[in-house]
Amino acid sequence: MTMRKAKSLIGKWRIVSMEAWGNDYVELCGPAYIQIDEAGGEMAFGAVQIGLRCEYGQTSIWFRFHGSDEMDEVSGDGDAELQENGTLKGEICFDNGDDSTFIAKRW
Length: 107
Known about the structure:
Blueprint (H helix, E strand, L loop, with lengths): L10 E8 L4 H4 L6 E5 L2 E6 L2 E9 L3 E10 L2 E11 L5 E7 L4 E8 L1
């Protein structure tokens, strides 16, 4: 898919809620976010820091990720879609582990 279609998603988004974890954990190491750019992106929340390989739609992305959670190697996939109210609603699923929905607002 072309990068031109994904322009509405490019940028840094502040994660404001996650279904599986409370804000104390989500904000453990600083503000939680998802960064989407032309080369992929990154996501950080709690002790999780991951790099994203993205496939882009006009108002959505699908991604595979790889990174760390408390120094343990993690991987998985997820997706996110731009909502009519301007928020980004998505889901992250760890391989052999937890999954959670999230809501993010443009930073």
